[in-house]
Amino acid sequence: MHEFGIARSILNRVIEQVKTSQCQSSKIGIRKIRLKVGDASGLEEESLRFCLEFCSQGSIAEGAIIDIERIPLRAHCQSCGAPVSSKDTQTRCEICGSGDIEIIAGDELFIDSIELE
User: Fold this and answer.
1) Regarding beta strands 74-77 and 109-116, do their DSSP bridges make them parallel or antiparallel, or are they unpaired?
2) Which of 3, 16, 41, 64 falls 20 to 30 Å from 79 in CA-CA distance?
3) Which CATH architecture has domain 3-21+28-116?
C-alpha cells in the first residue's frame, strides 16, 4: 500500500506549512485538508483517506476532515491529436492505433488548501 508513504509525506508537508506560517498560536489545529487527486495517479481514495487519518493521530492534524477532489483524466494522442477518453493510461488511440498518448491532466496529486481551527 503505497498510500501510507504518500499520506505521511502529505501530513509532514501540511504540518510543516502550518508551523512555519504566520499562525504561531500554540493551540493551532488543522480542521480540513483539501487534496486534488488525479484519476490516473494510481491512488485509491479510501486507502489514502484511511492512511491520512491513521498517520495524523497525535498530531495537530488529528481529526481533520480530509476533502479529496478527483481530477478526471484528460489525454490526447500525440500522433493524430485525437482526445483519448479511456481512464487506462496504457491505452491506444481509438482513431489511429498509436500508443503515443500524452496525459494533459489527471495524474497529479497536490495539497489544494489547509483550513485551521
Assistant:
1) unpaired
2) 41
3) 2-Layer Sandwich (3.30)
